[in-house]
Amino acid sequence: MNKNFAIGSIFIWIGFVAAISFMEAWLKFRAPGITLPLGLGIGRLVFAALNKVEITLLLVTGVVLYPFNTLRLKTKISLLIPAVIVLLQTLWMLPVLDHRAELHITGADVPHSNIHLMYAVSEVVKVASLMTAGISLFREKV
After folding, report:
1. Which domain holds residue 24?
2. Spans of the chain, pLDDT less than 70
3. Which of 16, 104, 111, 113 makes a 20 to 30 Å CA pair with 96?
4. Are the CB atoms for 57 and 13 separated by under 8 Å?
């Protein structure tokens, strides 16, 4: 496989994150009849699916680019950042957010936390890094 397959995977990845995190996540709460518990239940399902898609796209990109050991440092770093973010989201942020959503859904008192803000910021950083990686790969002669 060539690097064009990786470039495609990266931009598909950006599209998924942009559509879900930057649009669906908050827009669903504006729909008529959507309560907080219902919206949180939908969000848990959608973000679990997005996480699986992201892991798949991360693995595809990594496998495709593995033979290209001549990538510039900027490209390698811009690919490493989203990988670390997905790892943090998978192992830490999403489980915490999922637990908090479950507490909200059951009507329990949920203490204040900045985890949602951290997740949102990590999504912005991830997309910016993926854009940098995609553009860098497009420009590189590999």
Report:
1. 3-139
2. 1, 141-142
3. 16
4. yes
